[in-house]
């Protein structure tokens, strides 16, 4: 068995495409109505479509999952994040752990939790 994709639910798919392509450098592989597949296996699904598929309400900021990205120059990424058109909500500021790893955690505009860390 092989894990192929990670799907996250978003309200505004075009806004989310911009967020993940501009900040993380992902590229669009496939764009269909209500669904977008990006490089690195990330799939964006519009909330109204997903709620119809699963017949359940989606709950933003649930903190039950996390998208993890690695960045060697995390200080530059933080500057890029600060300059982004819309303000993001931070969960933890840029933090350096005793063993040297640096991480920053924040939500995308739909409450999906993201962590960007330096490689160990």
Description:
By secondary structure, the protein is an alpha/beta fold. The protein has helices at residues 13-24, 47-54, 74-83; strands spanning 6-10, 28-32, 35-38, 42-46, 67-70, 89-96, 102-107, 113-117. The chain has a 4-stranded mixed beta sheet with strand order 1-4-3-2. The protein has a 4-stranded mixed beta sheet with strand order 5-8-7-6, with helices on one face. A hairpin with a 3-residue loop joins strand 3 (35-38) and strand 4. It is globular and about 45 Å long. The two termini are 28 Å apart. The model has no long low-confidence stretch (mean pLDDT 95).
Please outline what is shown here.
This protein has 120 residues and is of the alpha/beta class.
Helix content: 25-40%
Taking the sheet with the most strands, its summary is: 4 strands, mixed
Low-confidence parts, pLDDT < 50 over ≥5 residues? none
Beta strand %: 35-45%
Q: Whole-number average pLDDT?
A: 95
- Give the strand tally: 8
Instruction: Sketch the topology as an H/E string, one letter per element.
Output: EHEEEHEHEEE
Q: What structural class do helix, strand and pairing data support?
A: alpha/beta
> Order of strands in the sheet with the most strands?
1-4-3-2
Give Rg in angstroms. Answer: 15 Å
Structural shape: globular
How many distinct helices? 3
User: What's the oligomerization state?
Assistant: single chain
Distance between the termini: 28 Å
Write the topology of this structure.
Elements: E1 6-10, H1 13-24, E2 28-32, E3 35-38, E4 42-46, H2 47-54, E5 67-70, H3 74-83, E6 89-96, E7 102-107, E8 113-117
Parallel strand pairs: 1-4, 5-8
Antiparallel strand pairs: 2-3, 3-4, 6-7, 7-8
């Amino acid at each position: 068995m092989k894990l192929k994709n990670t799907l996250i639910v978003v309200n505004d798919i075009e806004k989310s495409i911009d967020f993940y392509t501009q900040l993380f450098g992902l590229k669009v592989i496939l764009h269909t109505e209500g669904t977008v597949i990006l490089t690195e296996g990330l799939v964006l699904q519009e909330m109204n479509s997903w709620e119809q598929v699963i017949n359940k309400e989606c709950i933003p900021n649930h903190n039950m999952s996390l998208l993890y990205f690695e960045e060697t120059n995390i200080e530059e990424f933080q500057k890029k994040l600060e300059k982004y058109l819309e303000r993001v909500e931070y969960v933890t500021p840029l933090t350096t752990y005793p063993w040297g790893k640096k991480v920053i955690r924040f939500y995308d505009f739909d409450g999906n939790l993201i962590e960007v860390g330096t490689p160990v």
